[in-house]
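Bug report (template v2)

What were you trying to do?
Predict the complex of my protein with manganese (II) ion.

What happened?
Run completed; filing so the output is reviewed.

Input:
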Amino acid sequence: MMKTQNQATTPNKFITDWVSDMTALCQPDRIHWCDGSESEKQSLTAEAVQSGILIPLNPHKLPGCYYHRSNPNDVARVEQCTYICTETPEDAGPTNNWAAPAEMYAKLYDLARGSMKGRTMYVVPYLMGPPGSPLCKVGVELTDSIYVVLSMRIMTRMGDIAWKQLGESNAFNRGLHCTLDLNPDRRYIAHFPHDNAIISLGSNYGGNVLLGKKCLALRIGSFLGRKQGWMAEHMLILGVESPTGEKTYVAAAFPSACGKTNFAMLVPPEHFNGWKVWTVGDDIAWMKPGPDGRLYAINPEAGYFGVVPGTNYESNPNAMAAMSRDTIYTNVALTPDGDVWWEGKDGPPPAECLDWRGNKWTPDSKEKAAHPNSRFAAPMINNPMLAPEVNNPDGVPISAIIFGGRRADTMPLVYQAFNWIHGVYIGATMGSEMTAAAAGVQGQVRRDPMAMLPFCGYNMGDYFRHWIQIRKALKYPPRVFNVNWFRRDKEGKFLWPGYGENMRVLKWIVDRCRGGADANETPLGWVPGAHSFDLEGMENFDTARLEAAQTINYEDWRREIIMQDELFFKLYSDLPKELIFQRELLVARL
Ligand code: OXD
Ligand code: MN
């Protein structure tokens, strides 16, 4: 029997009925309706600290920052536990795990039954997108994790603002999250696209439980986007401002932990005096053709849930600034003076600290101090280069879409697709080495179409078709490009320095969109011409390395096409014919 609850903060009957059904199911001792206020944040934080879920960090070094350690078995997304519960398996397609909705509801409700006894159920209303935007969506997450509540408060526009947008409507995402006992055998991240509902059980890892992010903004979002004529993509959005104040917006899809946050927060090198890169978003783009025939994008999120290791003042000063206050760190290392540390941070490692598991660590230790997928959750307003347009309900017009993966070989640094459909083919055949963001074999190349393999909420073949169809609504389709920052030489060293120097690639892309850069035709697409790729100020860079990074190796490409075929065979009956033709054209050109 429920003991206490604060007053429901909305009169919306659909909400109160659902919350009361879920209360009857989960049987929490208390209900807390979140309002999103500062005082609520303070009291929940104090409670989390008291119960040991959060550890306050040194307020002089990291004001408003907290430290969290997860269960060591719960550190990444788990694709094998992620389900798309559509009516038929064909609707989910061969790249998703499928289960019949009725069976999945029954199984998960059985696991959830009584699971919040002795605990508090938090009702977390949130918005994905700027209020008033035609693309903005309301979600409500019921969770028994205070860590989730405080993280959702950073990652979304959380609280009464969502009730205001929802009014009396039933159009909201129903999300239920029960921590259970974190036994991986009882871990499920299940999506019910036809009901706009999500159930996540047995995990407390961000990507599995901050339901606005991967679950709503990508899996359910992509399903809704196809029905409603828009796109939900695993893409960063940035704005490039020229010295004369012209802004060009670009969206880029890279798989998890392949540098989206770094690229979204790029700081141009000294030589690019007067150029600025503004961040609109670092992970997700919702895009819709606008009345003027351009593709407009919003960032549905309000914070960054970024990979920490490797981040420093050189690789990403804006991320360092963003996580300097009001941030929750998860699974990094903790120093004796209440600071945090990770592999790749500026300066020498601490003489001693506690690693992400809480064990003593010294520089001689064999294990890593921070988990490779340790994360920061920081509010986007902390980013010194946050684009003011991030709150524009109409979004920003996208001039270029960039695809890219982590590839040691085969893929050139940059090339441009001949046209939209060729660009769709390039995105559809993207491959990348696997990273620590998902449980699995790291380093192995797998196909990750549009970086959406783990996030597409329906049949991937239909998803490609949707991409092809969207072209019809666009008078000015974005130009499409492919990049690879990760190509290596024979010694295993990166051929291109990356990070801020990627501005040179970005500048070529922007110039191409504005019609001002030359290019040469190759079998893969257009590559930078001799005069249009700016290497000035890179005195120590051997230009032969750029040539090597751009080389098309025909043996590698033979293998690449055979590897791409594996995905095409898997999707064969659903694959749009246009992509098969594109494959034939590429083979002929090669
Ligand atoms: C993420 C991911 O956390 O893609 O953004 O895994
Ligand atoms: Mn991501």
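What did the reviewer find?
Residues 212-228 form the longest helix (17 residues). The first strand starts at residue 4 and ends at 5.
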